[in-house]
Structures are given as C-alpha cells and as structure tokens.
Amino acid sequence: MKKFLSLLLLSASLALPAVAQQDPKAGKILDQMSAKYQALKAYSASFTQTLESPGLKGQKQNLTGDITVSGQKFRLKMSGQEVINNGTTTWTYLKNENEVNISDSDPDTQEMSPSQIYTMYKKGYKYTYVQEVKEGGEALDVIELSPENRQNDVFKVRLKVRKKDTSVKSWQMFKKNGNRYTFLIKDFKPNPAVDANTFAFDKTKYKGVKVVDLR
Questions:
Q1: In 79-178, where do the E strands start and end?
Q2: Average pLDDT of the chain, as a whole number
Q3: Which of 34-38, 105-109, 200-204 has the lowest mean pLDDT?
Q4: Where residue 171 sits, what CATH number does that domain have?
C-alpha cells in the first residue's frame, strides 16, 4: 500500500520557472482558492482516493484517509500508514511492520506534500480553465494544470472548485502509464484545535515500534 501513499505526495520538484502565458480566468479562481486555504490557521478533512488503471480491467480501488494541515505541517493517515511532517522532519509509520522511518524534510526536493495542493499551480505549471459543470446540484469550475517539466510522470492535474465558495471538491492526477487517481474531499473542518504534538511522532504511543533514522 506504500505506493498509494507516495502518490498522494505528488512530485513537485520542478526546476523550470513558469514563463508561459497563463489563462487569466483560471488564475483568478486559483488565486481565490489559494487565499481561502492559506488564511486558515489549520484545517482537517477526510478523503477518498480512487485508482483507475488499465491493469484493473475496469475495476476501481478505493482507499480512505484523513489529514490535518497547518501551514507546511501535516499529519496524514491512510491505509495502515501515517505520515507526520513538522516542517523540518518527516515520520512515516508503517502499522503492519510497527516501524517508523525518520527523514529530513526539504521543501525544494521532497515530493509534494498535501499541504501544497493549494499552491502547486504557482510554480512550474501551466493552467487552463476547462468548463463549468454541475455535480450533485453543485456548480463547479474545472481547471487543468500541466507540468512544464516534460519528465514528470504526471502529465495533468484536474481540479474541481466550488463556485459558491472557491473550495476544492476534488482533484485528479493523470499519469503517463494510464493510471488515474481521484481524491474526493469530505468532512472538511476549518481551524481545528492543533498544537506542536499534533505534528510530532510520539513513540511512547506505539509500543515496541522500530525506529529507522534515515537522516
């Protein structure tokens, strides 16, 4: 299941600056959406990740998880794994192995964290307004992002943003190997109570845990 979690942390190590002409309509919506989330001290949400793949022959794989984010800090739980990042250190806990791997966090080289999904468009991506759609009675703006780095395994990210409040309902990642990952946000809660302990791994709460320090 580790590969599913790593895909949530979508690679964002793009070296090329954004130089192409951007779609102003899409840019305005993205800026409003980004400002909305960055104005929050913290937020939490549950989500569903759906994988569609040529190898699954029409079937879908669904995983559920939850996340708490504050600035560049986050705590993510999904499929027997837990990833905690305090901005400088990342702990990855594997429940089946009762093992935690510790590594340094480098925002310039690490794979994109969930805390970056609302700002990823600002560097290394082209963005285009696609259309307005309705889902479940909600009006949504559909915006597509494409990485300027042609070597990126992800060739497109599609965001669906609610027109009523510029909140993100879902996003999809399209990979060159034919895999498609859809993340649907549910039970969004603005400004939950968080403190330093929220974004730190306390090994006393994981009896017998094996610690692997990769720093």
A1: 81-85, 89-94, 99-104, 125-135, 138-147, 154-162, 168-175
A2: 85
A3: 105-109
A4: 2.50.20.10
Q: 119 φ, ψ to 5°?
A: -130, 0
β-bridge pairing 210-213 and 99-104: parallel
The residue behind tokens 């400004």 is 191
Tokens matching residue 193: 């109570």
pLDDT tens figures, 51-82? 999 888 878 999 999 999 998 889 999 888 99
Three-state DSSP at 133 gives strand
- Evaluate whether residue 145 is within a structural domain: yes
Q: Which domain holds residue 89?
A: 2-8+23-204
Helical segments of the chain, H only: 2-8, 24-38
Instruction: Answer yes or no: is pLDDT of 106 > 50.
Output: yes
pLDDT for residue 115: 62
* CA–CA gap between residue 124 and residue 116 (Å, rounded): 13
Whether residue 22 is predicted with pLDDT greater than 50 in this model: the reply is yes
- Closest C-alpha to 6, from 99, 68, 94: 94
Is residue 52 one of the residues assigned to a domain? yes
Q: Is residue 212 part of a domain?
A: no
Residue 210 is assigned to a structural domain of this protein: no
- Please tell me the total count of domains within the chain: 1
- CA–CA dist 160, 140 (Å, integer): 6
Predicted local confidence at residue 108, as pLDDT = 53
